[in-house]
Amino acid sequence: PTAKAAPVRGVIPYGAAVRTDLLDTEFDYKAAIVDHCQLVVGEGGLKWFDLRPSEDQFVFDQPDRLIDFAHQNGMQMRGHTLAWYGAMPDWTQTIASPAQAERELVHHITTVVGRYQGRIPSWDVVNEAIAEHPERGATIRGSIWQERLGKRYIELALRTAADVDPSAQLVINDYNIENPTQQCRDRRQALLDLLRDLKDRDVPLHAVGIQGHLPGDMEIEKEGLSKFVEAVKEMQLEVLVTELDVIDNKLPAREYDRDQIVAARAGDFLKAISDVARPSAILTWGITDRYTWVPMWFKRDDGKPNRPLPLDAGCRPKALMKVI
Ligand code: XIL
Question: Which residues contact 306 (CB under 8 A, 6 or more apart)?
Fold first, then answer.
């Protein structure tokens, strides 16, 4: 008999992004999360758009609900996210000066991280800080923070979070670093440059989150990804997989075939990382195909539903669940 490879699950904590609003109405959805996850993260809820309807308001209902749910069921909650160009409420456009931007960012992080101090063990402090430009490499992405403060906003966010919760794992989270395209190579390089600069100046930072929204029709550049993780490890940073799913809009229609390719792709991705460093966590961006962001951007031409996640729409495990 051939020895079965040791399952990674059980060793590395697994989690999923959760739509908190469904926990009270979708019983099988809630049960799937409780059954499979050691970690949860709000798919929204802690984003500026959800938390900050106006400058003087913080609406904590969703994250408060999710952290209660997590703790009642023996799970931990990750925080996503404190500084991102996306999901910003309109009023933030009125942040005019560098001084005001600094005040707003510090006030936000102090309030939010402070509320959950000691209870959210890991934060995506900065999300998607890298932008690529065809022909001229990758740079720090534009956002209200970058426009007002320059790349200094990244350091400011990290230092503020560390001051408020010194026990939290502080993460820089990014995407599109795993494929054999020039764009991904540029992004890996820009991200490593950013990390090295922060480490050189002793900015508090503990880990890199690799989102892992994998294009199903593209190979993983295993060597490039492993080298990236090697460089991260040399900087004494941990890695975690934060938003894994496989974008299947260009994959075969037949469900069985599609599910095999999805699982193989994720398997290659996780192996390229784990061969070098054991991730401190693996999270998928959703758990069931019933609720996924993928069709918002990557609908299939044949009208068939996407299947990017470990459980099918009926919450039954697919091949992907076996490789996590
Ligand atoms: C997405 C959510 O899944 C959507 O429901 C929301 O409308 C937009 O944001 N990378 C990230 C996540 O870091 O925050 C994004 O989540 C998906 C891509």
Answer: 247, 248, 249, 289, 292, 294, 295, 298, 299, 300
Q: Which atom of ligand 1 is nearest to the CA of 292?
A: 3
Ligand 1 centroid – CA 202 distance (Å): 30
State which of 285, 290, 291, 298 you would mutate to test the pocket of ligand 1, scoring each by most atoms of that ligand within 8 A of its C-beta: 285
Catalytic residue among 102, 128, 132, 238: 128
Residue from 290, 293, 306 to probe ligand 1 pocket by mutation (most atoms less than 8 Å from CB): 293
C-alpha distances out from residue 9 to 6, 44, 93, 281, Å: 9, 25, 43, 10
Q: Helix count (H) and strand count (E) of the chain?
A: 11, 11
Q: How many other CB atoms sit within 10 Å of the CB of residue 222?
A: 16
Residue 104 a catalytic site member: no
- Type and span of the H or E element at 119: none
Strand partners, 123: 79, 170
- Evaluate the CA torsion angle 146, 150, 151, 153 in order and state its sign: negative
- Whether residue 243 has its Cβ less than 6 Å from ligand 1: yes
Integer CA distances (angstroms), 70 to 3, 123, 137, 154, 282, in order: 35, 16, 41, 29, 16
CATH superfamily name and code, 82-323: Glycosidases (3.20.20.80)
* Per-residue pLDDT in tens (0 to 9) along the chain, 324 residues: 445 444 455 689 999 999 999 999 999 999 999 999 999 999 999 999 999 999 999 999 999 999 999 999 999 999 999 999 999 999 999 999 999 999 999 999 999 999 999 999 999 999 999 999 988 999 999 999 999 999 999 999 999 999 999 999 999 999 999 999 999 999 999 999 999 999 999 999 999 999 999 999 999 999 999 999 999 999 999 999 999 999 999 999 999 999 999 999 999 999 999 999 999 999 999 999 999 999 999 999 999 999 999 999 999 999 999 999
ipTM of the shown complex: 0.99
